[in-house]
Each structure stands twice: as structure tokens, then as C-alpha cells.
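Backbone-to-sequence.
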């Protein structure tokens, strides 16, 4: 999730947040991206799937808790970019969650021919064949009405209302909005969750207190049905009918 977020933010030149938490300022990031040449765009979905199969994480010596380093591919209108972003993942204390920090850029190794063919859509892997895995711990039935209501408000575009209610954040803040921006970047329209959606949901206790749970719910779209788009947030369960939802992102992990 964190690596895809970095790649998408670089492609979209949403550099304020990356610059605030990385080793390069927004202006430094902009200079690096300008030097790559052709117009950047988001890494194709099939390419990203292949990248995740190959990605290597390297522990950073002398860090405790252990930080990890890797590189993130970039994509241009002409295909794979000549440079990659170096990214360091810092543990948050909530395993397996990390904060991603861009530490620089380096020359990219050539991609294999099969890798590029997949990215072009000429290989056998089709986007419609890719689906999230069923959840291991589907969210409990008592939370589902609250989550379904939030998703419905996302479907109808009630972003301002959700922000006023404390459900989502930074709707109109460039580089920090993690919900509206990413939903509107998707080519397909969201639809309300069907009953089957809960089979692809997950929940785990959050790290910062009892009665707080991390939730992940796969979203559904008008033409694709079950999609790779994921809602990530927390449920605050205080007993009885006191159930509150906060959504931190709706994007492709």
C-alpha cells in the first residue's frame, strides 16, 4: 500500500506530503522528475502486480526498530522510466504498517520483455482477472451497517459531509486527500456494497487502544463488480449502538 501510494503521488506530482516526510524537498522532487524526461503517468496495474512479485526489501543497518529500503518503479508515456525512486519504510509500531519516505532516485535496471508486455496489455494477464483475496477475518455484522452507510456516501460523492462528520480528512488539501482524489482517478464508478462484499473484508485490532479496530473493505464498481480498490480505516466500537467509522484511504494497495 505504502509503495503504491509513493509511486502514484510521484506520477501525479502531488509532492507536498512526500517532501514534508522525505529527504528531498518538494522542489527537489520536482527537479528529479523533470530530469526523467517524458511525461510521467501511473504505473499500469499489471506492471504493479508484477513488481510486487519481485520487490526486494533490504534492512537498513543500525536502525531499531528495523527500517527497510527498496526502490519504486516510475512510468512514462513511452514506457518504463529510466529512473526509480528510492524509498525507506519506517515502522509505525502497528505491524505491518509503515511510513514511506522518499530518500532519492537512481537509475532503473531494464525490465524484462515479458514484464513490459504485461504492462502493455499484450500478455495473458488481464485486469479483470485480478481480484483481491477473500478476507481472513471479515468485519463483524454489527459494524456492517455503519460501513455500508459510509460507502454509500462515497458513492454519491458526499465528501464534504463526510469530512464535516469526521469520517474522512483533508478533502480539499492537495497532496493529503487520500479518499476523494483516488476515487475520482478511477475510470469506473463506485456502487453500494452488495452482501457478498463482506467476504472480502478484514479487521484486526488497531495498535492504539481497546475498542478500536483496523478495517479493510474491498470496493465494488459499476462494470467490474469486485475491484482492487480498497477502503482502509478504523472502527471505534464503544458497545451498543455507539459505532463510529473513520476512513483514511480508498485506493489500490
Amino acid at each position: 500500500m505504502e509503495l503504491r501510494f509513493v509511486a502514484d503521488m510521484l506520477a501525479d506530482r502531488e509532492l507536498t506530503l512526500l517532501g514534508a516526510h522525505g529527504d528531498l524537498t518538494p522542489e527537489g522532487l520536482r527537479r528529479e522528475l523533470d530530469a526523467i524526461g517524458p511525461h510521467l503517468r501511473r504505473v499500469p496495474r499489471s506492471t504493479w502486480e508484477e513488481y510486487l512479485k519481485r520487490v526486494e526489501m533490504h534492512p537498513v543497518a543500525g536502525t531499531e526498530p528495523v527500517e527497510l529500503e527498496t526502490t519504486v518503479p516510475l512510468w512514462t508515456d513511452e514506457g518504463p522510466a529510466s529512473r526509480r525512486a528510492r524509498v525507506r519504510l519506517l515502522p509505525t509500531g502497528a505491524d505491518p504498517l509503515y511510513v514511506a519516505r522518499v530518500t532519492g532516485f537512481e537509475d532503473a535496471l531494464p525490465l524484462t520483455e515479458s514484464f513490459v508486455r504485461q504492462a502493455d496489455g499484450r500478455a495473458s494477464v488481464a485486469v479483470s482477472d485480478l481480484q483481491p483475496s477473500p478476507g481472513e477475518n471479515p468485519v463483524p455484522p454489527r459494524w456492517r451497517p455503519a460501513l455500508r452507510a459510509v460507502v454509500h456516501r462515497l458513492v454519491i460523492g458526499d465528501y464534504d459531509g463526510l469530512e464535516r462528520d469526521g469520517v474522512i480528512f483533508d478533502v480539499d488539501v492537495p497532496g493529503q486527500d487520500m479518499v476523494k482524489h483516488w476515487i475520482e482517478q478511477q475510470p469506473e464508478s463506485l456502487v453500494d456494497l452488495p452482501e457478498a462484499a463482506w467476504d472480502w473484508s478484514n479487521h484486526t485490532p488497531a495498535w492504539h487502544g481497546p475498542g478500536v479496530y483496523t478495517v479493510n473493505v474491498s470496493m465494488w464498481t459499476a462494470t467490474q463488480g469486485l475491484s482492487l480498490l480498497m477502503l482502509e480505516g478504523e472502527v471505534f466500537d464503544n458497545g451498543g449502538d455507539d459505532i463510529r467509522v473513520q476512513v483514511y484511504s480508498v485506493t489500490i494497495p
